[in-house]
Amino acid sequence: MKTGIYTDPIFLKHNTGNHPENAGRLEAINRRLAEEGLESRLLRRKPRPATQEEITTIHTVDYMRHVEEAALSGRQYLDTPDCALSTQTFDAALNAAGALIASVIDVAEGRLDNAFVACRPPGHHAEQAKAMGFCYFNNVAIAAAILTEKLGYERVLIFDFDVHHGNGTQHAFEERSDILFASIHQHPLTLYPGTGFAEERGRSEGLGYTLNVPMAPHSGDDDYLAQLENTLLPAFREFNPQFILLSAGFDAHRDDPLAMINLSTAGFGALLTHIKQLALECCDGRMVSALEGGYDYAALSACVASHLEILQADPQRGEI
Ligand SMILES: [Zn+2]
Question: Does the annotation mark 125 as catalytic?
Fold first, then answer.
């Protein structure tokens, strides 16, 4: 299949020092893709910075300017010590959101079948006017807003399998029925950010279009796949998405230092294979996946390589 990979050296320039979310993560991914010879089978794309009009589909203008001013003035962090800054953080964050926008447009217009965005900073914790959990602009939420508000999509599924709850994305869409936000994550009583209880199901128009599946610490492949097959996939099929966005965090891996879930690399692969089949059934395979967390370099790079193998596999040749 025509699988795009969006990445850029600007993503390495968001310099966070010895913070867990650092440039070494993307360097490990890039090395792994080169070693496995995957790059030659992927279509490499460069992002562009998102515009103010695009960022403000989710964030306020004042917040956008606050990120810019804080980064350029040399401040150490934004809103919380979790969100470290360097002078190029704003530029990197604009390009991360811009990469998501460019990728959904390329897939929507048929130039690509699917895509992976290897960006940083990540996005799913970013709220309308607040940086949280290593995130500044909510890349995936902005892409969903572009799909529904600019490209005319009526049903977009966001599936967030990062080990942390995607609070920012949920809050952006919890009153809407055209975007189904589903998150599987370590139970909020045991992990940051402390939201994502099963009872959080959306509000008013959006009631029933937020789906949270909290998992007990030490859950593994079988527990995740059972929830996927019994809870998530039936809801996804009923929603019948026209486009699928993945908040692809790999920090539920058993080797990850920040959480207590025990997925294997193969478990992540099985999860994605189910979602790709859903995409082929519902929406001609239209799917864009964006890097969120994942803090063990070896586990992260192995999971991303496997993820790209699965995205790129051709179902007509029986490859998945
Ligand atoms: Zn995470």
Answer: yes
